[in-house]
Batch of 3 targets.
Target 1
Amino acid sequence: MLRKLIGFTNIFENNLLDKLEFNGNSNKVFVYIVNLNNCKLLIPQFWECLSAEERSQANKYYTSNLRDLYIISHGILRCILSYYTKQLPQEIEFIHNKYGKPFLKNHNFQFNMSHSHDIVNYIIALDHKVGIDIEVYNNTLDIQEFSDLVFTPAERDFFTILEAKERLKFFYNLWTKKESLIKACGQGLSYPLNTIEAMTLSSGEKIFLDKEDNKFKQEWYYFPLEVVSNYSGSIAIEHRINQIIYLEMNNQKNIFDKIRLKWFN
């Protein structure tokens, strides 16, 4: 059955399949990396993977480019999840919390995705809620306009003494740390970023939701993502992990055939 599913989705190199299993180990996560612009020839295949609701959403986009990116990103997500759920992509069912975060119905796999410019990253975890965020650097961004929304007072003070060339990276590093956290807990941007202290956060350390009336889990763990130049990326997860397994889609073959491991003490 599994080989039949993989044959249908056709996005994995066969010799990688045995390396994609959790085997009951929740101390690792899988991160899938895709350049969406290299997948447009597969749009008909990914369209077939979508639910009726997703097809309707895709057709609401005013430009063909945005429509195509939606079809590709959500089609690939379903193909990845089909490997873990052992379902056909179009048969996978999602449920959503009141903030709109999707979860798999009747499965203990957790997932999240983040899209910025041409790149999309997906993360799959076992049992533990997880959030991922990547952001491409926008050199024209007026960070001062967002500082009150994103920075704590201490972060804002530190930002003001940085040299101009350091400010952009500082901003996006903080943004992705905080964004991955609120995506993991499931609240999204309804949670105020300027209440989260993340400036001194290092890999594997706890990151906290400090709002007094917050009803979500308070403590999470932060891990940095390995990303291409001019990007920042972060993971937040409710359980400390010791391994991130990265899989990259081959730009010529449009299949995942590159794998690398990152270990944490």
Target 2
Amino acid sequence: MRQPVILLGKGEVSLAAADGDVLVEPEGSGLEAIEALLARSPRAAVVTSGGDEGFFRASLCLERGVKAVVLRRGAFVEAYEKELAARARSFGRELFVHDDTRGYERVRAASERVQVGAPEVTAWEAAVRATTGKSRQAATIGLDVDAAWEEAAEAAEPLPMDAPVPGLSENLEEVAFTNGDKPVLYLVVPARSLDAVRARHPGAAMALARAEALPLAVEGATGRRIEGASGEATVHVFFSTDPDLAARAASLWEQGSSRNAAAIGELLGYPPCCTAAFVALADRRNNAALVYVTAARTRALGASFHPLLDVAVRRVVPFTPCSFGCERAASVAARVVASLPRDQSEPLTRALARPVLYLDEARAVALEGAQIDGAAITFESARFLPAPASLDPEGELFARKLFGALFEGGGALVCTDDAFEVRGASFNRRLGRTTPRLGVLLPFGGSSG
């Protein structure tokens, strides 16, 4: 008996298979049911839905080794088809479109790729460039801040900064390495700190990806690392209790971290599903875009938002999860948290279990006392999250005052294509969105109403 064909999505198709079963995704199911079908090692997958729902199902099949993926002709815009074809090519798979009139046609990859699930990258990068050195403009990228909102922000109290967990390690990846969960530990550290970092891992061999330290700057908002620009001299360092593994990881990184992402991910102990999803991406440099893509993929596949994977509050795992509901990634995070002292693990767990309005690596807001009620999240108060790629002090203060004006006193947050609205019994505050339309709601940990 041949391997089965799986049918994913909501669209209606007729499919006859002479050999082997046709396995259908149950209606209303989520990621767990799709994973169960993929575990049957299908020889082909037919994706009947379009949009993000169909796109991420097709990508998942390609990542998991399905040799042939068939799309319903006309279900996708051409850019989505071409992007899936590029992913098929990178994994050595085949992508087809089909209808009953014209039959099967192989889809060819285009040279230009798209980041499905993220804001429009060209407009985003243009906005970042246009606001370089302009504090307030950088603080309002993607927001329609008119004179009334300027005035409201000036009069508002800054949104309080979220409090750090006392004593918590700056890099929880080191905790995972110490626990024995990672064959190799990879860190990017200031050259001046290398000796101190090495002293923390006395039983491990160290290998540098290259001998010389280079300046590295982190771009505000996107979190992209830009080498050779202004910034502190940094080194890329690998540790392992097996010297050969440390040396191999450093060598692969030096040969090309993007080209060797799969092999490096395996050495670093990342879940294979997460590594494959990362390798599939059109662009891996924009850290903020990765959050949007993961959120879009999570929703499209019907997965949950596991609090331990709340990368906006704190990165318990250093890799990009394939979805925010990935059980393998959550298990890695759980082992890290379980190894922490109680006076760190308990406040960290509470901090992670909050919904977040995420704009970019410089602007994110956690909602306290939150309850999810359909499309709205009611909340009691809000906190501005410490930024991994922060604005300058003036820009950050203005962002905190702007969000202080929006979130003051709590209410119900509703996100639409055009605005963020906070509604209360006697008010309705509306902050408009504009190109590149940043902002995604990450419903980690909010109780259901």
Target 3
Amino acid sequence: MKEKKSFKLKYIFIILLILIMIQIFRNPGLSIKSAKEGLDIWANLLLPSLFPFLIISNLLISLGFMDLFGRFLEPLMKPLFNVSGIGIFPFSISMISGYPVGAKLTSNLRENNLITKIEGDRLISFSSTSGPLFLLGTVLTGMLNAPELSPLILIPHYLGAITIGLIFRFYKKNDKSSIEHDVYNLKTTNNSIGALISGCIKDGIDSMLMIGGFVIIYSVIINIMFKSNLFNSILNIVSKVTFVDIEILKGIVAGIIELTNGCKMISSLNIKLINKILILNFLIGWGGFSIHSQALSFISNTDINSKIYLVSKFFHGALASFYTYLLYIFKYKGMLSTTFNTSNFTIPTDFEHWLSVLVNSAKITVTSFIFISILSILIKQLKVKN
């Protein structure tokens, strides 16, 4: 039965791939333009902001720092999320760096046997989030031109992730399996520090190239899809049945597939600001198939349940929209009752901006690890006193 289902999925995938290739040959100019847009997003937004996180986090895992901190943070993570203390690592770094670092680090922990399969399943449900650089810099400031509304984006997004984590703490709650830790010091390795660093850099480069490939591919797919008469006909039918404007539907579909493009389309619409933010928070919580493809490529190297990841991301988006509406009702209703004029968002391509993002990302990475270190020491001291 499973083999038949797998065969059908492969057959459908081949058909879709052929249709996409036909559209690419029919619209070579559009395909090249779309690929360039995807490349700009990767090179100017993702590469400088994610690369330092990937290298430094890989290095700390390899040296055993995270295993050490994890033991100190066990009293915090175990009662809340039913995962070992080391689970704070992908969760906190994901909140700072953004997609898909949380999924990458969770997979790394499982590959290094630092968490169990069940802990990996629980952890992957809430440790894949967007980062403040995208939420505040790209969406609120660049697309909506409303940085003063940061609580209306940040709070629902991260509260949604935490809620998912609290729910999934009960997933297979009777499972008592755990990783035994016999050694309480840093890992020893036969490799030199130079070899260790070069290995982490290589892994970071491989990950970034893979992420870039997905961003470019999905950017091309979205633009080709919107040029398809069949797709536009389907959207027209859905628009008439649901009474939802077709431009809103296009933005939602784009965001479901590729997050940045979808957010750009929704932000440019002439609709009430609260409606924009409700849709945007769902899309950001969901993440988009482009990000899911990146995350699943990391998860596929482990035995972590990918279905849990996908289901949790849908509910993350739904909860983020729900919390947005609650926050709007209690605090922002008077401020967001009218339509909102947006600015035209363009991706900065100058080297000075690129270098600034890279340096700031490195600073945030180091600061984050210092904070985690201090937190782990404080918790250890409190535990000793008790």
